[in-house]
């Protein structure tokens, strides 16, 4: 078993608590959006749908120039997901600029995503390695290709020593990068299936070391979600689950209501709080989400993530009393059917 401490930041600081955010006005079901892009990503997706890679290239170049690594990670994931069904714009981008680090990043993420869905995952992932290496060499400051490499290593069932080398390279570039920490947590969960306490140790210490406003503050609640949905391993004390939720509540309170940036964290937190029976806290978080439902975590436990989100929202009383429609819209304003997500 790998030493947990080898994967943990060396310094520990206590997280500072903040007052709770003001609750948002409840949003009707037909105003809820699943995985709605923010104002920066939306134009890039619209252009990509028309075969134009320029806005996507400009967006990722900006995140790289400004070292906006969390935004860069999110946008790369969303652009790669879009390219899974409509890749013409990405193919044109790579043909026009084969050494562009931003195009290489999206291509590497897409290749990992495609390989992950195949029965021949391990073999296909080995073929992806040169592309990830090229993306990592594109900008020595960028931690996002290393997050892709960490996910790749988990899928390829890499050994602990190799994973630790990737982890050390990632945190040298961005010590508190959320995506890299999530990748590490998922690797530990896969390596120590059922050993949720070790995963909590990693998540708790990483959160303690991170600044109060860092998304890494939500890492323990991800560990709590994994425990609550896994159904294996020794019991984790209820106090530890509550502490993870409380830390994420403090993080949520730092952001405005109905803000797309912390939406996934609030969706995750709302689910965990509901599972823990903390109805009042769950109600607040699900209202703070506003219209920004996210596939994660609902798609991990349901084939209809938006439907489950709306049901839990109803169950805890976070939805408005009267709703004009039971047919929520997708991110483009069209009606969503149960098979669309």
Please provide a written account of the structure.
With 341 residues, the protein is an all-alpha fold. The protein folds into two domains: 1-31 and 199-341, no CATH class; 38-191, Serine Threonine Protein Phosphatase 5, Tetratricopeptide repeat, CATH 1.25.40. The protein contains 16 helices and three strands. A three-stranded parallel sheet has the order 2-1-3. Helix 7 (144-155) packs antiparallel against helix 8 (160-173) and helix 10 runs antiparallel to helix 11.
Question: Can you describe this structure in just a few lines?
Answer:
This protein is mainly α and 341 residues long. The protein folds into two domains: 1-31 and 199-341, no CATH class; 38-191, Serine Threonine Protein Phosphatase 5, Tetratricopeptide repeat, CATH 1.25.40. The chain has 16 helices and three strands.
How are the secondary structure elements laid out?
Elements: E1 33-34, H1 41-49, H2 54-65, H3 69-83, H4 88-96, H5 101-116, H6 121-138, H7 144-155, H8 160-173, H9 178-191, H10 196-209, H11 219-230, H12 238-252, H13 263-275, H14 279-288, E2 292-293, H15 295-298, H16 305-315, E3 329-330
Helix pairs in contact: 1-2, 2-3, 3-5, 5-6, 5-7, 6-7, 7-8, 7-9, 9-10, 9-11, 10-11, 11-12, 11-13, 12-13, 13-14
């Amino acid at each position: 078993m790998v030493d947990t401490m080898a994967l943990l930041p060396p310094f520990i600081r206590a997280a500072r608590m903040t007052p709770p955010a003001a609750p948002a006005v409840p949003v009707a079901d037909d105003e809820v959006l699943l995985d709605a892009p923010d104002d920066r990503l939306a134009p890039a997706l619209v252009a990509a749908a028309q075969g134009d890679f320029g806005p996507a290239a400009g967006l990722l170049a900006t995140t790289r120039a400004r070292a906006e690594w969390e935004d860069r990670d999110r946008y790369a994931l969303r652009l790669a997901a879009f390219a899974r069904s409509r890749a013409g714009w990405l193919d044109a981008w790579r043909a026009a600029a084969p050494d562009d680090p931003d195009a290489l990043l999206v291509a590497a993420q897409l290749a990992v995503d495609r390989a992950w869905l195949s029965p021949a995952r391990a073999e296909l992932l080995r073929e992806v390695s040169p592309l990830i290496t090229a993306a990592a060499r594109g900008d020595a400051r960028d931690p996002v290709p290393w997050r892709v490499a960490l996910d790749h290593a988990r899928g390829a069932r890499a050994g602990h020593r190799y994973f630790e080398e990737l982890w050390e390279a990632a945190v040298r570039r961005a010590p508190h990068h959320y995506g890299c920490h999530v990748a590490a947590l998922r690797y530990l969960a896969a390596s120590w299936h059922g050993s949720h306490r070790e995963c909590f140790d990693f998540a708790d210490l990483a959160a303690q070391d991170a600044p109060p406003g860092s998304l890494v503050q939500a890492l323990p609640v991800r560990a709590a979600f994994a425990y609550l949905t896994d159904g294996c391993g020794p019991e984790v004390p209820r106090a530890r689950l509550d502490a993870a939720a409380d830390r994420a509540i403090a993080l949520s309170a730092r952001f405005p209501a109905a803000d797309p940036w912390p939406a996934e964290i609030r969706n995750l937190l709302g689910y965990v709080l509901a599972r823990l029976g903390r109805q009042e806290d769950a109600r607040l978080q699900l209202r703070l989400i506003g219209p920004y439902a996210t596939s994660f975590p609902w798609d991990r436990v349901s084939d209809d993530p938006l439907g489950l989100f709306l049901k839990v929202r109803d169950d805890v009383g976070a939805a408005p009393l009267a709703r004009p429609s039971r047919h929520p819209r997708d991110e483009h304003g069209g009606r969503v059917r149960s098979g669309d997500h």
